[in-house]
Predict the structure.
Amino acid sequence: MITIEMLMSIESDAFQEASKNIDKNDLNQIVEWLSEKNDKIRYQSFLLLQNRSIFFDDVYPYWNTFYNKLKSENSYQRSIGLILIADNVKWDIDNKFDAIIDEYLLLLNDEKPITVRQCIQSLCKIAHYKNQLHYKIANKIMAINILDLKETMRKLILLDILGVLAIIRKHETTDEIEGYIYNALSGEILDKKAKKYVETML
């Protein structure tokens, strides 16, 4: 049985291996620790579950727990929920994400810019597995008004959006997607280095 001491002893470069070796029966406890007030316990638990989700589908049954976190008043809990949902979309045989996508995309308007970024970045993972939702995702992220954001966040969030569009574009595209990318590459928010990076993504 996993203990807090065992959890806390996992080194930052050992989570992948540790996640493979945990007892499936310990998952309940690790998921509970996601709600710990202690940042370190919460974060170690999150990393363990995130890495476990790469290899096994046994974190997927906790989907509803992660979904409920999307509505938490605590921004850390919202972030945990949205990231672990994205990590488990690959196992989503029940198409649960299709039913919650509208609520998930509400986090694009989150009061915390870091949560907005994490939501957009998580859509990169989701786009790989949910082709049927590509247009909905693309339309929502393209509707974000970059100029309404803090100046320090504009370039970062625009790059995040373009990262998602680059994935979607490999499957299908629209005039709106092409126009958005063209405007981003010809506008002034991205510097030359960022524009070159986007071109390599595309």
In short: The chain has one domain: 57-201. The longest helix spans residues 151-169. Residues 57-201 form a domain with the Leucine-rich Repeat Variant fold (CATH 1.25.10.10).
